[in-house]
Amino acid sequence: MADKKKVRFGLLPKLLLGVFLPILFAFAIIGSLVFYSWDMGEYRFTSIKDIGSESLKELSINSTKESKSSLEKMGEKIIREKAIDVAAQMEIFIKSRPPKMKMEEILRAPSLKEIAVQKVGETGYTAVHDTNAINHFHVNPQIVGSDLHQLSDRFPAFWKILEASLKGPASGYYDWKDADGKIRPKYMYLAPVKGTDLIVAATTYIDEFSRPSKAIEAKIKDIERKYLEEYENRIKIFYAVILCVILILLVRIFFYARSVIKPILHLAEVADKISMGELDTPIDVKAKGEVAVLADSIERMQTSVKAAIERLQKRKEAKT
Fold it and tell me: What structural domains does the chain harbor?
């Protein structure tokens, strides 16, 4: 038998690679579209996963900002209304005093102090000073009677708002250090008492009103955390399904390629035997298409070779 030519890279691995690699490449593209984002300067591609994640984060940020802003606006309104309400109460009280009663005597009335100093929010309060920035009523007795100009250097933001109130209604934010040393923003509204030189200031920490927004933020973060956990679980399932699909495809492609290669190898073996003179070698191929055409060609060649050998033998016998 003739020596068989050694095949380094046969048809079977070529079929496997030719079919399997494009499928693998397609899965890689799908995976990149779903799970990975690319940032190339001016061009950015956002994956399907990141679109959902970014949308949730944007919703979280916007919802928190909107809720906080709304609650702070509501807090500003409450503080403003408190200052205006106290100013109106003081106006009524002062007008109800005898006309000949001096302002100094009115200011010493204990009942006026109860009106002038009221609670605002959880920790805030109202206070009263005049257009000369002299305090008359305050929750801290040590401040009563003091000149508030002294605070201009220590608390410039606070003084700027208070100074504006000497000419009319004023409001604004300033930072204040609370008892535990933490600096937090306060909102203050100042309303004049009509018919007098008195001004009511209502102030408190604004985060007393925006505190519920933190609960909303925590809830949204909890939803985001659950979303990420669910996403991780689905990713694991996705990878497991993809791996199973790839393995099934690989096995299916292998057996398909083998079914294509097997009859070709059989025909090659038949052709080799025919070339060695084994003209009765059966050609047992049930394939269709091009392989069936090749099998028919080898079968015709086998018949032709048989006929040629028979003619030669007859000529040889005729000569003898």
Answer: 23-51+214-315 (1.10.287), 71-205 (3.30.450.20)
